[in-house]
Every structure is written in C-alpha cells, then in structure tokens.
Design a protein that fits this description.
heterodimer, A: 169 residues, alpha+beta, 60s Ribosomal Protein L30, Chain: A, B: 444 residues, Rossmann fold, Neuraminidase, 4-stranded antiparallel sheet, 30 strands, 11% helix
C-alpha cells in the first residue's frame, strides 16, 4: 500500500514535472529572470551566444520526478538542444547545478542533486560536448526556485539548471 | 571566547555508603517510558553578602530552569516554601519541606572570595529520608555564574538519576536569514538553554551547513556550500576561531561527522555524481574509502566504541540505514519499515541510533537499536530532521520546518528537544531561524 502511494505520488509529481518542462521549453520559463525585458524591446531577440539566447533557444533547465535522477524524454530533448547550442558556440563553458525539493533530508538531497547534475552532464557529453567545458555542482534542497510547499513548487525545484560560465579566467 | 576556568570540585561531606542507601530511596529511573516528575524545592541560594545577592538570585533561576526543562523534576513554586534557610551548613527542618510535598531539597550558598571569584556551595537533601544525598562546591569568576549554575544542575541531576547531566554544554547551530530561495546560513553557538548566543562565522560567501561537534575538543566540522563550485568540508576551532578546508577535492565533500575519539572525520565524497563514505585521519589527512557502491552512500556515524559505522544508502531503491564494520566490511541494512530512513546518529551511550524517517508526507525523529530492532518514533511534523544527542544519550535535539504557504508565509526553521521517552518536546529559543543543531560534549 505504501509502495502504491509512493508510485502514485511520484506519478503525479512526474506529470507536473513534464508540464513544467513543457512550459519552460515553450517560451516563458518558470524562472522569471529569463523573461528579461530586452526580448521585448529588441525584436531580433537575445544576443546570439548569450545566456538569454541559451535560455530561450535551448532551454536551461530540466526537471525530474520525485527522488529520481533519470532523464525524461522532455529533459533529453532540452539537453539535445543545449548540446546543439553548445556546439554552435564552442568557446562557452557551462555549470550544471542539481537541485532537489524539500521533501528529503539535507545530506541525502546533496547527494541526489549531484546525481541529477551528473545525469545532465553525461547526456551532453554523450551528445558530443567536450567534458572539459562542463562543471557540475549540487545545491541539494538549499536553493529552491519556488519556496512554496506544494506539489507544483516541488516539481519545479527538482531540476538540473545549466548556466554559462563567464569566460576569460 | 571560552573563559579558561577551572572548577574546584569539593565534596563537602558525604559518606558513600549513605549515598548509595539514599539512591535506593529517591533515585529516578529515567529509562522508564513514563516518569512522574519528582517534586523538588530550590530556595533562592543564600547570599553571604549584598554583593552576591543578584548573582544568587540569577543563578538559582538558571538551576531551576535547567531542572524543570529536563522534564524529570517539578520545581515547586518558591512562594510555597515555609522554612527560611540562612546557611548551607544548617540541617533543614525536613517537616517544613514535607508539608509542601518536596521530595528533594537543593540548598545553595554563594560566597564572595577575596580573589574576586565566587564560591557556590550546594547540598542536595532527601526530604523523606532526612539525609544528605550529596554536596558540592564550585569556585569560579563571578561573571561565569551561569556555568556554575549549570554545574550545580548537572550535580543534582547525577545525584538523583545516577547518570551524567547535560546542562553545562553548548549548541552550535545554523542561523538562517533571508529568502528561502537562497538563505544566508552562518554558524552560531549558544549555551544549551539558549543563553549567550554568539556568531561563530560571519560575512561568509557560502552557506554553512550541518555542523558537528567533536566529542573530545571544542572543535566542529561542517560543510561549506559554495556558489558555482562543489561544497567542501571544513574544520573550525572554537577556541581560536581558526578554520580550514579539510582538503581540496574535485568532487563535493559533505555530511562530515567526527569519530568518537575525535581523531577522524567520517564524510561523504562525490565523484562523477556518485557519493560514497570515506574517513579522513586528521593527523595525516589520509583519506580512506569505506564504501564503493553505485548507489548514494551518505551520513556516516561511528559507534562510541569505534567498531561500527551506520550510514544512509539508497542501494535498495529507497534511502535506508545500513551498518558496517569500521573498515567498511559486512554492510547490512537495519531499517525495513515503510518509507525512507536517513541521517543516522549513533547515541553516545552506544545503545541506539537516532534517525530521520520520512513516510506518507510526514517526517519523524526516531531511535532504533543498532541491530535494527526496537524502533520507536519520538516526534512527527511536516519536516523534522537532523537529530543530535545530548552527551548523556537521554535527550535529542533536532530542527523542525513548517510548510511554506502560497503567500510565502511559514517555512520557518526552529530547534526542538525531546526526551528519549518521546515526552517533553520543547522548542529551544534561538535568535531568529535556526537549523542543524550540534550538541557539544560536557564542558571540562
């Protein structure tokens, strides 16, 4: 019975994750910061090769089911676009941060976040992105995007987020 | 920051035969599930001069609060007391104390010494046995009266339970501020009763997480969670304020905890996304791998005899608690209940392992024997996590988080303590939000 409940829970959360993932790839992202106003004032869209360009045209965040680090088809599609974008801009370096919802202990979630970041990293490397361009980090449950204690918020907070590293160092 | 202090412990007058006879009469058995608090009278400590009157009153208040908070004693209201004691060296009128149903009477006196220190003399009386259970005297700088009070409370606790107390101890914890999306987390230290809170770290460019006290020294280990690079384990000397990163590793190091002798730090290290358990010898800084499993292995904790290590692993599909030998051999799962079991913490007595259990949307703090039998859940809420043991293994402190509502309210972290019996759940007062408590050993 407990297992059933867990599966049901994971299923529901997975659905939300899928929805969230779709939403993020369709345009307006769950992260409000990506909707910067420059997009509105410049009809041409974000500067090619920029962080905003990456977020808008590749998608910088993939989502996971509860206590899972396997990549959903949607996550794989997003990562494939990330890989294509990264090949287009071979001088860029990225950081992948793994994040978790608050329904776990601090230490276990740090380990789980590392797994999520690694799942995304491995997929990109498999798609031909040079491993030396990628750094991973886990923030566990310490950096929730959505602070609310709801299924919707947890689904958004279970993610691997890719950002461009500032070059030149 | 700790004052160097030496308590001179003098047993004023006690015949050991008399003491054991007295134990038989009024001793509290704190291993029982249900303990009726023992009625105890603690009249204001007698002051030898006007100079010490304020200290006497404050010190008595701290003793009373310690005893009351333990849940083992019911401190009788001072207004009910009949006899007005004038010296610690006078035999009380036991009839007066029996009239108000006191079973135990604590009489103390504070004397100003010529060298500027104070002397705190205390006698513990068995009211119905008409006899002294023990007597003790501490000399300490006057401004250190709080610790003297905790020492007195520890003495009373031991006289009446036969076990060491835990009042003269400190708590290191994570002080939290700012929005939940990226909280500022720094380390603070305070007395066990919440007094004297002081920051240990300030102005850090990282979040300080999961501090743990050395069982042998005024030293802690914790995790620094950086922006944009993997978090690393740190060592922090509370006496000197010095801190250092415990090695530089490509992968994240986290979940540190001292071995019982304080010479090693157990931790998890992540490589290529996978976390395993390691131990680091602090003298040589040599790192030894203890688990090598494709599943997550985290949160190691060593038994007080140093022979075994408990940890969390999800190798069975969900996080559960496993126990292995200290060299990593003979890894066995010990939790089989429904839900997930995490953050094992071995009791300083060795008899139990505290844990966090997650089941059907709730979190619990519980205890289980190292062989996996005798599980008992002590607390339940939306999120209870991170147990830490009092040095006598009788009380557990942990942190509790409330859910965050749609309007952003709630989501508050606070410290709580609960007896091993599951009774006496109390919130610990902290300046602001707090999490990840770590209980110190008894101070020297």
């Amino acid at each position: 019975m407990a297992i059933k409940a867990v599966l049901k829970y994971a299923g529901a959360a997975g659905m939300l994750a899928l929805l969230a993932a779709c939403a993020s790839t369709a345009g307006p992202d769950v992260n409000a910061a990506s909707n910067d106003t420059t997009a509105a004032t410049q009809p041409a869209g974000p500067t090619p090769g920029s962080e905003a360009d990456f977020e808008q045209n590749a998608g910088h965040r993939v989502f996971f089911a509860y206590d899972q680090y396997t990549l959903t088809p949607q996550a794989q599609a997003t990562l494939a676009r990330q890989a294509a974008w990264l090949k287009q801009y071979p001088d860029t370096k990225i950081l992948i941060a793994g994040n978790c919802d608050e329904r776990g202990t601090r230490e276990y979630n740090l380990a789980l976040g590392a797994r999520r970041a690694e799942a995304a990293r491995a997929y990109l490397v498999n798609m031909g992105v040079d491993a030396s361009r990628i750094t991973t980090v886990s923030y566990g449950k310490e950096r929730p995007l959505d602070p609310r204690s709801t299924e919707e918020a947890w689904a958004v907070n279970r993610n691997a987020t890719t950002t461009l590293r500032t070059t030149g160092s | 920051m700790t004052k160097s202090l030496r308590f001179l412990l003098t047993v004023i007058a006690v015949a050991s035969a008399m003491m054991s006879a007295a134990y038989a009469r009024v001793q509290i058995d704190i291993t029982k599930g249900t303990v009726e608090p023992m009625p105890i009278a603690v009249p204001e400590f007698i002051s030898s001069s006007d100079q010490t009157a304020g200290v006497s009153r404050d010190l008595t208040g701290v003793v009373m609060a310690d005893l009351d908070r333990s849940g083992l004693f019911a401190v009788i209201d001072q207004r009910a007391y009949i006899e007005n004691l004038t010296s610690v060296n006078v035999r009380p009128k036991f009839a007066d104390w029996r009239l108000i149903n006191a079973q135990v009477l604590v009489v103390g006196e504070v004397t100003q010494l010529d060298d500027g220190r104070i002397e705190v003399a205390t006698r513990v009386w068995d009211v119905y046995g008409d006899e002294q259970l023990g007597a003790v005297s501490f000399k300490t700088p006057a401004d250190n009266w709080r610790r003297a009070a905790h020492k007195v409370a520890d003495y009373v606790y031991k006289a009446l339970t036969g076990e060491s107390g835990y009042f003269d101890t400190r708590i290191v914890f994570v002080h939290e501020s700012g929005p939940k999306q990226h909280k500022v987390k720094r380390l603070m230290i305070m007395d066990q009763d919440g007094a004297n809170p002081a920051p240990l770290t300030d102005g850090l460019n990282y979040q300080a997480l999961t501090p743990r006290f050395s069982p042998t020294q005024q030293q802690i280990t914790y995790m620094a969670l950086f922006d944009n690079k993997p978090g690393q384990v740190y060592l922090f000397n509370i006496e000197t304020g010095e801190q250092e990163q415990l090695g530089t590793f490509r992968g994240m190091t986290f979940a540190p905890r001292f071995s019982p002798d304080g010479t090693q730090v157990l931790l998890s290290m992540e490589r290529g996304g996978n976390s395993d358990v390691f131990k680091m010898d602090l003298a040589t800084r040599r790192l030894t791998r203890l688990t090598d499993n494709p599943a997550v292995d985290v949160s190691p904790t060593m038994s007080p005899d140093g022979k075994r290590i408990a940890f969390t692993s999800d190798r069975g599909g969900t996080p559960q608690i496993y126990v292995m030998n200290a060299d990593g051999s003979d890894q066995k799962r010990i939790t089989f209940g429904q839900g997930r079991y995490m953050t094992p913490v071995w009791s300083p007595r060795g008899d139990l392992i505290a844990f966090t259990r997650q089941y059907e949307g709730q979190f619990y703090i519980g205890v289980i024997r190292p062989d996996g039998t005798g599980e008992r859940l002590l607390t339940q809420s939306y999120l209870d996590e991170g147990p830490t043991w009092a040095p006598n293994g009788r009380v557990i402190m942990f942190y509790r988080e409330t859910p965050t509502r749609a309007d952003g309210s709630g989501g508050e972290d606070s410290l709580w303590s609960v007896d091993l019996t599951g009774r006496n759940l109390r919130r610990i007062r902290t300046p602001g939000e707090a999490s990840d408590p770590a209980w110190s050993p008894l101070l020297p």
